[in-house]
């Protein structure tokens, strides 16, 4: 029997079978997925095969190949990763212009890593009810920038519910990762969408939680109209550490668009003559903030290269 892993609490996995049952399952045997040293071999979002036993529980006997997965590297030195979710259809990145301020670097890093994993991203600007006229202006400009690049933007207030219903059609029948810095209103948004979820907000913040627990239990919240939401605290992107510097250009859609006209095919867009990207930047076809994000991600990579022991 096949099903979808919707919850992971330590050694138990809740599997929603294709015929609509919910079966508590454990792992049988030793799953070692190619190249991943993870603390948990199965994650929410995994499609699995289970063998139900007499007690009504089951063993997970195999896992389907993943389209993608999100990992968090563990804090200790074991170099093991923890897989937070697999087979994500899309990500909703919740950002706030203020309270707290989300930097464009944070947004761009998230977008680039999502491009690398081919996960579509929608940007949700929350706390619009708190914005001053100036902040609102700024938000509109940022929205317009990302809309132009090809990322849909929604302006909402999770607190008042304003604009939230426009998100609902996007979520239907999809596995959606809800991401964003601590305090931007993810739990508030979930409570708005799923009043029975009763997620804790603010007082017990994400930052708090990650400090206290070394293991993260993940859960997918079922949407009444079909589909699932995953709220995993502290995700900064999709395994950015795997991105090669040569690939980086292709994860910035706007930069990539101009890069094909660069004189050198291996142009880094930092100093080369005949660089169409820097020309586009000078002509304001590429936003300065996007170029700065690109540079900062490049620098990370170069630093890592030197830190590598071999
Ligand atoms: N004014 C306003 N406050 C909000 C909004 N959404 C969330 N908050 C508040 O922001 C704080 C953090 O929200 P929370 O949902 O816990 O953020 P999370 O860390 O992303 O899950 C809480 O005090 C919320 O009440 C909003 O749309 N407007
Ligand atoms: Mg939260
Ligand atoms: Zn160039």
TrEMBL record:
<dbReference type="Pfam" id="PF16745">
    <property type="entry name" value="RsgA_N"/>
</dbReference>
<keyword id="KW-0699">rRNA-binding</keyword>
<keyword id="KW-0378">Hydrolase</keyword>
<comment type="function">
    <text>One of several proteins that assist in the late maturation steps of the functional core of the 30S ribosomal subunit. Helps release RbfA from mature subunits. May play a role in the assembly of ribosomal proteins into the subunit. Circularly permuted GTPase that catalyzes slow GTP hydrolysis, GTPase activity is stimulated by the 30S ribosomal subunit.</text>
</comment>
<feature type="binding site">
    <location>
        <begin position="126"/>
        <end position="129"/>
    </location>
    <ligand>
        <name>GTP</name>
    </ligand>
</feature>
<feature type="binding site">
    <location>
        <position position="269"/>
    </location>
    <ligand>
        <name>Zn(2+)</name>
    </ligand>
</feature>
<dbReference type="InterPro" id="IPR031944">
    <property type="entry name" value="RsgA_N"/>
</dbReference>
<dbReference type="Pfam" id="PF03193">
    <property type="entry name" value="RsgA_GTPase"/>
</dbReference>
<keyword id="KW-0547">Nucleotide-binding</keyword>
<dbReference type="GO" id="GO:0005525">
    <property type="term" value="F:GTP binding"/>
</dbReference>
<dbReference type="InterPro" id="IPR030378">
    <property type="entry name" value="G_CP_dom"/>
</dbReference>
<keyword id="KW-0479">Metal-binding</keyword>
<keyword id="KW-0342">GTP-binding</keyword>
<dbReference type="GO" id="GO:0042274">
    <property type="term" value="P:ribosomal small subunit biogenesis"/>
</dbReference>
<feature type="domain" description="EngC GTPase">
    <location>
        <begin position="86"/>
        <end position="236"/>
    </location>
</feature>
<keyword id="KW-0690">Ribosome biogenesis</keyword>
<feature type="binding site">
    <location>
        <position position="262"/>
    </location>
    <ligand>
        <name>Zn(2+)</name>
    </ligand>
</feature>
<dbReference type="GO" id="GO:0019843">
    <property type="term" value="F:rRNA binding"/>
</dbReference>
<dbReference type="InterPro" id="IPR010914">
    <property type="entry name" value="RsgA_GTPase_dom"/>
</dbReference>
<feature type="binding site">
    <location>
        <begin position="180"/>
        <end position="188"/>
    </location>
    <ligand>
        <name>GTP</name>
    </ligand>
</feature>
<comment type="similarity">
    <text>Belongs to the TRAFAC class YlqF/YawG GTPase family. RsgA subfamily.</text>
</comment>
<keyword id="KW-0694">RNA-binding</keyword>
<dbReference type="InterPro" id="IPR004881">
    <property type="entry name" value="Ribosome_biogen_GTPase_RsgA"/>
</dbReference>
<dbReference type="GO" id="GO:0005737">
    <property type="term" value="C:cytoplasm"/>
</dbReference>
<feature type="binding site">
    <location>
        <position position="275"/>
    </location>
    <ligand>
        <name>Zn(2+)</name>
    </ligand>
</feature>
<comment type="subunit">
    <text>Monomer. Associates with 30S ribosomal subunit, binds 16S rRNA.</text>
</comment>
<dbReference type="GO" id="GO:0003924">
    <property type="term" value="F:GTPase activity"/>
</dbReference>
<keyword id="KW-0963">Cytoplasm</keyword>
<dbReference type="InterPro" id="IPR027417">
    <property type="entry name" value="P-loop_NTPase"/>
</dbReference>
<keyword id="KW-0862">Zinc</keyword>
<dbReference type="InterPro" id="IPR012340">
    <property type="entry name" value="NA-bd_OB-fold"/>
</dbReference>
<dbReference type="GO" id="GO:0046872">
    <property type="term" value="F:metal ion binding"/>
</dbReference>
<protein>
    <recommendedName>
        <fullName>Small ribosomal subunit biogenesis GTPase RsgA</fullName>
        <ecNumber>3.6.1.-</ecNumber>
    </recommendedName>
</protein>
<feature type="binding site">
    <location>
        <position position="267"/>
    </location>
    <ligand>
        <name>Zn(2+)</name>
    </ligand>
</feature>
<feature type="domain" description="CP-type G">
    <location>
        <begin position="77"/>
        <end position="238"/>
    </location>
</feature>
């Amino acid at each position: 029997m096949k099903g979808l892993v919707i919850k992971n609490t330590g050694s138990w996995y809740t599997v929603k079978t294709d015929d609509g049952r919910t079966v508590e399952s454990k792992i049988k045997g030793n799953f070692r997925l190619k190249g991943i040293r993870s603390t948990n071999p199965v994650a929410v979002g995994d499609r699995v095969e289970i063998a139900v036993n007499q007690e009504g529980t089951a063993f997970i006997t195999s896992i389907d190949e993943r389209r993608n997965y999100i990992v968090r590297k563990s804090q200790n030195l074991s170099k093991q990763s923890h897989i937070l979710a697999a087979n994500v259809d899309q990500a909703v990145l919740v950002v706030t212009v203020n309270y707290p301020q989300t930097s464009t670097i944070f947004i761009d890093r998230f977008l680039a890593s999502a491009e690398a994993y081919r996960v579509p991203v929608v940007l949700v600007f929350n706390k619009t009810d708190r914005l001053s006229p100036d902040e609102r202006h700024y938000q509109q400009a940022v929205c317009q920038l990302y809309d132009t690049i090809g990322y849909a933007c929604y302006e909402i207030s999770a607190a008042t519910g304003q604009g939230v219903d426009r998100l609902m059609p996007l979520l239907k029948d999809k596995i959606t990762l809800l991401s964003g810095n601590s305090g931007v209103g993810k739990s508030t948004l979930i409570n708005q969408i799923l009043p029975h979820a009763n997620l804790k907000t603010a007082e017990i913040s994400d930052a708090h939680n990650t400090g206290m627990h070394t293991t993260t239990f993940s859960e997918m919240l079922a949407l009444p109209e079909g589909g699932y939401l995953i709220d995993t605290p502290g995700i900064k992107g999709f395994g950015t550490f795997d991105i090669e510097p040569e690939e980086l250009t292709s994860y910035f859609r706007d930069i990539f668009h101009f890069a094909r006209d660069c004189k050198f095919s291996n142009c880094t867009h930092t100093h080369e003559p005949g660089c169409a990207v820097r020309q586009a930047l000078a002509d304001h076809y590429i936003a300065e903030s996007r170029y700065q994000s690109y540079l900062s991600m490049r620098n990370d990579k170069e630093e890592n290269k030197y830190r590598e022991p071999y």
